[in-house]
Design goal:
The chain is of the alpha/beta class. It contains 14 helices and 12 strands. The chain folds into 2 domains: 274 residues, P-loop containing nucleotide triphosphate hydrolases (Rossmann fold, 3-Layer(aba) Sandwich); 64 residues, Roll (Ubiquitin-like (UB roll)). Strand 6, helix 7 and strand 7 form a beta-alpha-beta unit. Helix 4 runs antiparallel to helix 5.
């Protein structure tokens, strides 16, 4: 699963990427310093794996991971090829979800691509360009099937109606994830890899002073706008997060207390990115390794086994399953067995968040 990081140039995209991944990348004040995508893999914080390890005693722990892609900055006119527009839009389509970074800080040393700071305008530029890009894809494909459907090919009914619906809403500059549509339309939109159906979190990149009580009209307007539009959002000082990342554990704990945070905003961003993809975590223990795995909610046991190795899915027989909550309650694997809390599940079992699973298979 991949999360694309998008935003105008100089919004803080690459700072976020560097803070998330620790990758040493160029961060510059000049637009388009990111030309080719930067890609990094990040561990998903999960306290449960540490708790489980107290009872299982593994030699090694592996966290679930999520991939982040730092994409080139988008500018007004991107849908018509301005800046790195075509490159940006095609590369963004590979992402499963989007993190949009919006600048909410003033800094004379870092010029704004629009010549003025206006977070709402920045959001609307990005959303309009992406909506136009999707509209062009929808319009082109609608024209292809319009004649065929009207000439009597009824198998095209769903696709025709889905594209017609998308065309009407995109023409109003609405993203498709802002409107309700029938479930059967979603597979059609995925087929065309539309950007406006992708889950989105908007990150307001603020000055460090915001976290010690400094008021900001930019942030106030940003919050009001996001609440009105029902957007998920997070307030972060990405420069500050990058500095916190370089502290040792004790320094980090002291610093977070000083600014009244229980955990870094980065951890929140990682967890929320995981959530918008509708992922859950299950755990396996084999060869002295306790490992967390991410799967889509609703995944059945054989397909979950296939996440570890394709042969496990092909040769799936059954799964021994117990849940983290039960382990936490009885605090012993032996007690789980005694109380009958380790279940034997078959091919129709839907893996639950927090399940600890031992797969039986035949290769």
């Amino acid at each position: 699963m991949e999360i694309g990081i998008i935003g105008l140039p100089n919004s803080g995209k690459s700072t976020l990427f560097k803070a998330l991944t620790g990758n040493d990348i160029l961060i510059d004040i000049f637009p388009f310093s990111t030309v080719n995508p930067n890609i990094g893999v990040v561990e998903v914080p999960d306290e449960r794996i540490l708790k489980i390890s107290e009872y299982i005693k593994p030699k090694e722990i592996k966290y679930a991971t999520i991939k982040f892609i730092d994409l080139a900055g988008l500018v007004k006119g991107a849908s018509k090829g301005e800046g790195l527009g075509n490159k940006f839009l095609s590369e963004t389509r590979r992402a499963d979800g989007l993190l949009e970074v919006v600048r909410c800080f003033e800094d004379d040393r870092v010029p704004h691509i629009e010549g003025r700071l206006d977070p709402i305008n920045d959001i609307e530029i990005i959303h309009l360009e992406i909506a136009i890009s999707d509209f062009e894809i929808v319009q082109k494909n609608f024209e292809k099937i319009d004649h065929s459907y009207k000439s009597g090919i009824k198998e095209l009914k769903n696709e025709y109606e889905a594209l017609k619906f998308a065309k009407e809403n995109l023409n109003k500059d609405l993203w498709l994830n802002e409107v309700e549509y029938p479930y059967e339309f979603s597979e059609i939109y995925k087929k065309y890899n539309l950007l406006t159906i992708k889950p989105l979190i908007i990150i307001a990149n603020v000055n460090e002073e915001y976290f010690i009580g400094e008021e900001s009209d930019y942030v106030k307007k940003f919050i009001e706008y996001c609440q009105k539009k029902n957007y998920k959002f997070i307030i972060a000082s990405l420069k500050l997060e990058l500095e916190i990342k370089n502290l040792n554990a004790s320094e980090k704990e002291v610093f977070l207390k000083e600014i009244n945070l229980e955990e870094t905003i980065l951890n929140k961003i990682i967890k929320e990115s995981y959530n918008i993809l509708d992922l859950i975590t299950f755990f396996t223990y084999a060869n002295d390794i306790l490992e967390a795995h991410s799967i889509k909610r609703g995944t059945l046991a054989p397909q979950a086994a296939g996440k570890i190795h394709t042969d496990f899915e092909k040769g799936f027989i059954k799964a021994e399953v117990f849940n983290y909550q039960d382990l936490l309650r009885v605090q012993s694997i032996h007690e789980l067995k005694e109380k009958g809390l380790i279940k034997i599940e078959g091919k129709e079992y839907e893996i639950k968040d927090g399940d600890i699973v031992y797969f039986k298979f035949n290769i």
